[in-house]
Design goal:
heterodimer, A: 167 residues, alpha+beta, Ubiquitin-like (UB roll), DNA polymerase, domain 1, 2 domains, 5 strands, 15% strand, elongated, B: 777 residues, Aldehyde Oxidoreductase, domain 4, Aldehyde Oxidoreductase, domain 3, 4 domains, seven-stranded mixed β-sheet, 21 helices, globular, binds FE2/S2 (inorganic) cluster
């Protein structure tokens, strides 16, 4: 058996925790985390809208920080704990944000939806009862071209209410 | 790294963002069990959990990734292309150029919904001898990954002879302008003038004698307006995956508004019969008209033929901006005349719209829509298609009508001001209605312009005062109306009954914003089952009859009609089965509200479905039709703006959109169309533009610099759904996707005029433009 030849190998083994599960994957140093998630790990729920940090479709949570995964290298994920849209819901169920997006019709084409749900889930962790303005401010890094944001804002308000019902 | 996490989640914005109540009102008609309710959409769970497969998510064994080499020049002749160095890169499997395409004939081809010139279509996919805009495709590489493909692209050597170019309409129509297509001559009023110019077509629509009628007018208002090229701005980049099989058959997986249109265009460009091409529509991440034309599909197919492997191509955002079809910029002169008592008596206009690198723009639709809200006996509009060295333009939501309305609705606003009349009253006084003659000849069918204007006037927003401006700002209110005619086109649906009383519904319309639900709900209403008892699927071109594109606001109307017909076909067959069970004649069995009846006997749809096995086996109802009864729709926007006179920034404070839906099948998705178009309109009005440098190159090719509105830029959006039923549809559906983008830019301009007293003649009305208008800079 021949060990890896470090002179010709172009890929690095990355160990990380993704959606609560320890994983190992091979990444080229130039590949973004977004590419690794989608093309290497088949986690295609995380979307690419711009690949330069301006649309939020690729947002994931990395060690408690909301990041544009297109601006993180795959190799930077080593040792990190990452949550993607696929890890937002409990097994067999939906996250309150997902339920609220469905009930409020907060998606049309849906390409932006995973990014919005991941971003909004972080907002609700930090601010249990955000106002309309706070929601708009937090979500300004996520572009949606279909909805005009109205129903997205309502969905986040509904999810906040579902998670922490008013007394 | 940009992260929202770096900002505190609780920081309070320092400005008024919204003084809207965001109320959604429906002025409804009809009483239905399913229609008008708000079920969870059928494809919703897949889309909120990340499971839905969009074009870019296509995964196939042995998949290669492609990259397209694009022109760095705005206009140039290709002298030579040398791919030898690129071919030598390890991991490269195929390289193709225009030489790999069959020689395209210079002829019009029928694509089912409007034709196209085959040579232009082919040259736009891979340039032959000339590149006509920056970003024009020249060659493409397939490799083991996109990085290798990109590196190989950089090694393709192209020698260019740079040519003089024209960058915008006024330069293109000037005497002695460089010609984009030197061989083309101007057609005017149906005749070839023999004159070589960048104007490919001049058309005129006229009713009566407007020149004489202007002499009778007491008050005249007129203006000149320009709009710049803007992009549809769908968030999912253009993509295509193709496999050219060893037997010569080709399959394409793509995000498209029309799988049959994608199949037919790809087949034409590749010189194949349509029977050899199958298009598999993947979920589509927005289109707005921009995902009808093919850009990558034929290229992916060629790369697959050359490599023997499936090949996926995805554009970068910069490629999306530079190499797909944006909406045309425009230059318009509009004039209206009215009597002292406020009656419109005359109108004339000239509209120039750019078509970009190849002939054919949205001018015809702009001309048809321009005067549609009004009753005017004498009117004329001249339209000109203008070539420029920019990407070939493509439809964008009510293509052509928003640019026209930006001009006409500002002049109407000026006329109302001159007459001292309320702008909504003035529009109501002159409103078109059933029987009013349109400038293109026919009479308006039953149409809801008056109802929409009345709801606009009565709305709490219009009745409210503007409130107190923040320090250093001025507030204003504007109103505008817009029209879109909507379209029909063919659609096919098949419905099969399951033994448990549910049905599967198979359709060819790609679902871009909830149409699975609106189609399924119409079938459910006819069948008498719940919306969730219908399982709709969008299938490939081998699996359903021909279906036109999801565009023209046609899908809920036309594919809905097909679903209604297919459901009726199911009911007819089920009635015969129930008759068998009861041993009565089928004539004695009726069906309503989900139950079959004969005398005192009754059987639910579900129970009847349980009898299929013993009464003759499975039942499928089908319908393929080409409906002609589509109905046009009006929309108004009322908006309040607050302008910071020091910075020139315009904030939209309050927004109400009123539109005639005919019938809202799923009101949430109808409201969603109004709201989405409103936000797009706010972007088009205030921030979006193709910003070109002196060389004609777009300099803002990222979503940082091309500013789509964010959640923080727009308020809650009040909607009013008006339902004036379209007689051409059993439930009255008109289609809702487009009329809503027509009035926003004019409404914002009128609000700015109201706030600062200056008429805005160009888009976008960004801070620089406002300061310029104020004389500050
Ligand atoms: S794809 Fe990462 S921000 Fe757009
Ligand atoms: S739903 Fe289409 S981009 Fe947001």
């Amino acid at each position: 058996m021949v060990a890896v030849d470090a002179r010709t190998a172009t890929k690095v083994v990355v160990q990380a925790t993704i959606n609560g599960e320890p994983v190992q994957f091979l990444a080229e140093p130039r590949q973004t985390l977004l590419e690794c998630l989608r093309d290497v790990l088949s986690l295609t729920g995380t979307k690419e809208g711009c690949a330069d940090g301006n649309c939020g479709a690729c947002n994931v949570v990395m060690d408690g920080r909301l990041v544009n995964s297109c601006l993180v290298l795959g190799v930077e994920a080593a040792g990190a704990s990452i949550t993607t849209i696929e890890g937002i819901a409990p097994v067999g169920g939906l996250h309150p944000l997902q339920t609220a997006f469905l009930e409020q019709a907060a998606l049309q084409c849906g390409i932006c939806t995973p990014g919005f749900i991941v971003s909004a889930s972080e907002l609700l962790k930090r601010n249990a009862r955000p106002t309309e303005d706070e929601i708009r401010f937090w979500l300004a890094g996520n572009l949606c071209r279909c909805t005009g944001y109205d129903k997205i804002v309502r969905a986040v308000l509904q999810a906040a209410e579902m998670i922490h019902p008013a007394a | 790294m940009t992260t929202t996490a770096d900002r505190p989640a609780t920081s309070s914005p320092t400005r008024v963002i919204s003084i809207n109540d965001g109320a959604n009102i429906i002025v409804s008609h009809g009483d239905y069990a399913v229609i008008g309710t708000r079920p969870v959409r059928h494809d919703g769970v897949d889309k909120v959990t990340g499971r839905a497969v969009y074009g870019g998510d296509t995964r196939l064994n042995g998949l290669l990734f492609g990259k397209v080499l694009r022109s760095p020049h705005v206009h140039a002749r290709i002298v030579s292309i040398d791919t030898s160095k690129a071919r030598a890169v390890p991991g490269v499997h195929a390289i193709v150029t225009n030489a790999d395409l069959p020689t395209a004939e210079d002829r019009e081809v029928n694509l089912g919904e409007g034709g196209g010139n085959l040579k232009y279509m082919s040259d736009n996919v891979l340039a032959s001898d000339l590149v006509l805009y920056k970003g024009h495709a020249i060659a493409a590489v397939a490799a083991i990954n996109v990085h290798v493909a990109e590196a190989a692209c950089a090694l393709i050597e192209v020698e260019y002879e740079v040519l003089p170019a024209v960058h915008e309409i006024k330069a293109a129509i000037a005497e002695g302008a460089p010609l984009v297509h030197p061989s083309l001559t101007t057609k005017s009023l149906g005749k070839d003038t023999g004159v070589h110019s960048n104007i490919t077509n001049h058309a005129r629509l006229q009713i009566g004698d407007p020149d004489a009628a202007f002499a009778r007018a007491d008050v005249i208002a007129e203006g000149e307006f320009t709009t710049t090229m803007v992009h549809q701005g769908y968030i999912e980049p253009t993509n295509a995956t193709a496999m050219w099989y060893a037997d010569g058959k080709v399959t394409i997986w793509t995000s498209t508004q029309g799988s049959f249109a994608a199949r037919d265009s790809t087949a034409q460009i590749l010189g194949l019969p349509v029977s050899r091409v199958k298009a598999v529509p993947q979920e589509i991440g927005g289109g707005f008209g921009g995902k009808i034309n093919v850009y990558l599909e034929p290229v992916a197919a060629l790369l697959s033929r050359a490599s023997g492997r499936p090949v996926k191509l995805i554009m970068t955002r910069a490629e999306v901006f530079q190499a797909t079809g944006p909406a045309p910029g425009s230059y318009s002169k509009v004039k209206f005349g009215a009597t002292k008592d406020g009656r419109l008596v005359a109108a004339s206009a000239e509209i120039y719209m750019e078509s970009g690198a190849y002939p054919g723009s949205d001018t015809g639709a702009a001309m048809r829509c321009l005067y549609s809200p009004y009753k005017i006996d004498d009117m004329r509009v001249d339209g000109y298609d203008v070539l420029t060295n920019r990407p070939k333009t493509a439809p964008y939501r009510a293509p052509g009508a928003p640019q026209a309305a930006f001009a006409s609705e500002q002049v109407i606003d000026d006329l109302a001001r001159k007459l001292g009349m309320d702008p909504v009253e003035f529009r109501l006084l002159n409103a078109a209605h059933e029987g009013t003659r349109l400038v293109n000849g026919p009479l308006h069918k039953k149409v809801g312009g008056i109802e929409v204007l009345e709801q606009t006037k009565a709305h709490a927003h219009y009745q409210s005062d503007l409130g107190t401006p923040s320090p250093g700002t001025k507030r204003g209110r504007g109103v505008a109306i817009g029209y879109w005619f909507n379209i029909g086109l063919p659609s096919s649906v098949a419905i099969s009954v399951n033994a448990d009383g549910s049905v599967t519904l198979v359709e060819g319309s790609t679902d871009i914003g909830g149409s699975r639900a609106s189609i399924a709900m119409q079938a459910a209403e006819i069948l008498g089952v719940r919306a969730e008892d219908v399982r709709p699927s969008v299938v490939d071109t081998d699996s359903i009859g021909y279906t036109g594109v999801t565009g023209g606001s046609r899908t809920t109307y036309a594919t809905g009609l097909a679903a209604i017909e297919a459901a009726r076909h199911v009911i007819a067959q089920m009635t015969a089965r129930v008759a068998k069970v009861w041993s009565v004649s089928p004539d004695e069995v009726s069906h309503d509200h989900g139950a079959f009846r004969a005398g005192t006997r009754s059987m639910s749809f579900k129970d009847a479905a349980g009898h299929l096995d013993e009464t003759g086996g499975p039942i499928t109802g089908t319908a393929s039709l080409d409906p002609q009864g589509h109905g046009g729709a009006f929309a108004t926007v009322t908006c309040d703006v607050e302008i910071d006179v020091e910075t020139g920034k315009t904030q939209v404070l309050k927004w109400t959109i009123v539109q005639d839906a005919g019938k809202a099948i799923h009101p949430s998705y109808v409201e969603g169309q109004f709201q989405g178009a409103s936000a797009q309109g706010i972007g088009w009005a205030l921030s979006e533009e193709y910003f070109m440098n002196s060389k004609g190159e777009m300099t803002n090719t990222s979503l940082l610099d091309y500013r789509l509105p964010t959640a923080f830029d727009v308020p809650m959006i009040n909607t009013v759904i008006v339902e004036v039923p379209n007689p051409g549809h059993p439930f009255g559906v008109r289609g809702v996707g487009e009329a809503s983008i027509v009035p926003p830019m004019a409404a914002v301009a009128n609000a700015i005029r109201d706030a600062i007293g200056v008429r805005m003649h160009a888009l976008p009305m960004n801070p620089g433009a406002i300061l310029h208008a104020l004389g500050t800079i």
